[in-house]
Please model this.
Amino acid sequence: MSAIESAIRESEKLHDGEVRFAVEAALHPAQLWRGVTARSRAIEVFAELGVWDTERNNGVLLYLLLADHRIEIVADRGFDGLVSAEQWRGACQLVEERLKAGEPEAAVLRGVEALSALVEAHFPREAGYVDENELPDQPHLL
Model:
């Protein structure tokens, strides 16, 4: 977990976006009964963690639901029209590849790297700009 936190912290030196990572072992049976999907849960976690609450609306969440082997990316509205669904899906596929290879830490680190590259492409750190860390860098265990 400390390697993931460090990767997020270092990635945010390259851009002024905010990257969060959350992992959940499984959905609660009551959630399954209500029809909660990995995607809807990721959106809920995005809200709970306040990833939407950044000055430039450029927060992004990498959500991993272990039981369902699902990876979801939820990005704030600042990315609308800038990053395509295929680009987000490409980042998910990089995580999936490492997970299938049995390398969970490498999978998340690769996901953070891919998300950071997408954020940097549209919200690069500008010279002289002082960026405050608006969201925690620590992985969030649900």
Remarks:
- The two ends are 14 Å apart (CA to CA).
- The mean pLDDT is 94.
- The chain is about 45% helix and 15% strand.
